[in-house]
Amino acid sequence: MPIPSTRSRVRGLLVAACVLLGSLTCATAARAVSQGERALLHRDSRSAVPVLAAEATRRPGSMQAQRAYGIALYRSGDAAGAVRSLSAARRLAPRDRPTLYFLGNAAEAAGDTTLALDAYRTCLALGGATLGPVRARVDVLVTAGLRAEARRRIAEERSIPVASVPENTVAVPEFAFAGGPDSLRPVCLGLASVLVNDLGKVPQLRIVERNHIDILLDELKLASSSPGQRAVDPKTAPRYGRLLGARRFAQGSVLAIDDARMQLRGSVIDTKTASVRGTGVPVDGRMDDVIQLEKHLVYEVLDTLGIHPDAALRRAIGVPATRSFPAFLAFSRGLEFEALGRTAEAATAYREALRLDPHFSLAQDRADVTGDTPAMHDALEQNMLESAAGTGDGGDAEVRSTDALGMGPPSDGVPNAGLPARVDAPTRIGAGGRPQLPGFPGVPPGADRRR
Fold first, then answer.
1. 252 near 377, Cβ under 8 Å?
2. Position 121 pLDDT exceeds 90
3. Which one of 66, 74, 144, 355 is separated from 165 by 20 to 30 angstroms, measured CA to CA?
4. Do residue 239 and residue 276 come from a single domain?
5. Contacts 24+ apart (CB under 8 A), 313-318
6. Residue 269: domain span
7. pLDDT, tens only, 247-278
C-alpha cells in the first residue's frame, strides 16, 4: 500500500477541517432556529422575535425561517409584518399547512379579509382532521362580507340595473311549506341546503351563497320569526334578485301527503320578468327517500334552465348527502335552530345528525361552525406551532398526518405538557374564539353565522 505524500496528507486534513467547520456552522444555525422555535412553543414571542429575525435575514430562501419569523411577529402583535414574512414562506412552500393557518390569522388581524379567506380555504383544501376552527373563521368572514354587501346594495338599490345581473346566477331560497305536521317544517331548510350543494356542482351556473338570502331579508327587516315563511314569490323575486345579484330563483315546496309520504314541487322564477315556470310534474315518494326525491327535482330544475348534464355530472349530482332520513331531519333541525339564533341547540342537532351518519359532510361543516370554541382554537394553534417546529424546509411534505390533528410532533423535544404559562397569549373574544391581537379589530361583535 503506497504511503501518502506530505502534500496529500495536508490536503486531506484541510478537507476534513472544512467539513468540520461546515458542520459546526450548520449546528450553530440549527441551535439558533431551535431556540427561537422553542420560545414560540412556550408562547414567548418577545424572546423569539429577535432570534428568528436574524435567522430569516440570514436565510431568505428558507421556508422554515420565514415561517417561524412570521409566526413570532403575529404572536407579538405585528400583523402586517407577519403577513409579509408568512407570504414569503408561502411562496417557498405553497402547501405548508401551518404557514397557511397563521397567514390566515395574520391577514385577518391586519384587516385583509381577501387574503385571510384565500389562506384559510387553501388550508382546508389540503384536508386534515380537526380543522373546524378554520372552517368557522371562513364562515364568520364570509357572513360578515355578505352582510356588508347586502347593506351596500340596499343603499344603492335604485342605481342597480336589472340587466347587470348575470344570466347564469341562481339563488335557492328556503322551500315553501305547503302542508303537513310542524315537525316536518325544518325539512324546507334542509332541502334548500342540499339543492344548493347539488346545483353548485354544475359548472354553467353561479350559485348565490345560501345565507345571503337570509341576511338580505334580515337587513330589509322582512325576516319572520318562523323560518318556514321565508320563501320567495313572484312579487318579491325581482327586488330580491336585483339586490342579491341573482337572475333566477330555484324555488321548491314540500307537502306531506300522509304520515309516511311527501311531495316535492319545483319552480324557476325569473327575476327580470317575474315570470314563473314549473319544473315539471311534482315528485312524491316515501319520506325516507326524500334525498332521492330531491335528486329528481334537481334534474327538473336543470332541464327548466336549459342545462342537460352529461354522465359525469349526473354521477356527481347523484351522490346522496346522506342515506339516513333521521340524520337529514336532525340536520334540518340544526339549520332551523341556527336561523333562530339558537346556536347551542343547532350544534347539538348537527352532532346528532353525525351520530346517525358519520359521513354526512354538510352536517359536519355546520357542526364545525356552531360547535366552535376558544379551546378548540387554542388546541389547533398549539398543534400548528408544534408542527412548524417539527418540519424542515420541505414545505409540501407538511401535508401528512402523524397524529390525531394531522400535525407532526415538535422536533426539539419540547413536550406539550408542562409548558409554562403563555407570555404573549392573545385575548380570545366572540363566539368564534379567534385570536384577537391588541390594536387589530376583528369581525364586528355579533356577526351573524347563519346559513
1. no
2. yes
3. 144
4. yes
5. 313/201, 313/202, 316/201, 317/198, 317/201, 317/202
6. 166-320
7. 999 999 999 998 899 999 999 999 888 889 98
Whole-angstrom distance, CA of residue 372 vs CA of residue 379: 12
The CA distance from 138 to 110, in Å, is 16
Say if residue 245 is in the same domain as residue 288.
yes
Domain of 252: which CATH number? Answer: 3.40.50.10070
* Residue 302 belongs to some domain of the structure: yes
Q: What is the helix (H) or strand (E) element at residue 429, kind and residue range?
A: strand 427-429
pLDDT for res 3: 53
In a domain, residue 354? The reply is: no
> Which of residues 352 and 369 earns the better pLDDT score?
352
Dist. CA 134–CA 309, nearest whole Å: 33
Q: Give yes or no: residues 132 and 180 share one domain.
A: no
Place of cell 337570509: 214
Domain count, the chain: 2
Residue after which a domain boundary falls, among 305, 320, 335: 320
Question: In the block, which residue shows the cell 430562501?
Answer: 61
Least confident of 189-193, 208-212, 280-284, 435-439: 435-439
CB 331 within 8 A of CB 322: yes
Phi, psi of 167 (to 5 degrees): -65, -30
Query: Same domain for 138 and 182?
Result: no
Q: Which residues contact 292 (CB under 8 A, 6 or more apart)?
A: 285, 320
The predicted-structure confidence for 1-53, as pLDDT tens digits, reads as follows: 455 555 555 455 544 544 444 444 444 434 344 577 777 777 777 888 998 99
Q: Are residues 178 and 251 in the same domain?
A: yes
Q: Quote the cell numbers at residue 243.
A: 339586490
